[in-house]
Amino acid sequence: MPKESFLVNRIKSVGFAFKGLFLLIRTEASIKIQFVIAVVMTALGCYFGLSTTEWILQCLAIGLVMGIEGLNTAVEKTADFVHPEFDEKIGFIKDISAGAVMIVSIMATIAGLLIYIPKII
Prior knowledge:
By secondary structure, the chain is mostly helical. It is 88% helix and 0% strand. α1 (6-27) packs across α2, α2 (29-48) runs antiparallel to α3 (52-82) and α3 (52-82) runs antiparallel to α4. The protein is flat, with a radius of gyration of 18 Å. The relative contact order is 0.10.
């Protein structure tokens, strides 16, 4: 079988990534909630006229939260596949993964408050 070109491989990779993105949004409740929050925050950003720096920070915060949530989902699905029954060690791994989402979410909330409180007050 002939080896595919670099460009063809990249195009396929992007296709797989979009498939994963849509699967994540369609199947995971937490991502659906975060997606709605991202849309609301984007609308608020337009309403309050964020500066370029504020937009960059907001986009990074949204991307980090949703990206880490995606990784958390992958860790949980992998753990459930490898060991479907309850296991303390698997629970520990899943809790750590969820904790990473919590850390990023708290920092994103703080960043959002720093951006929006001065505009609201």
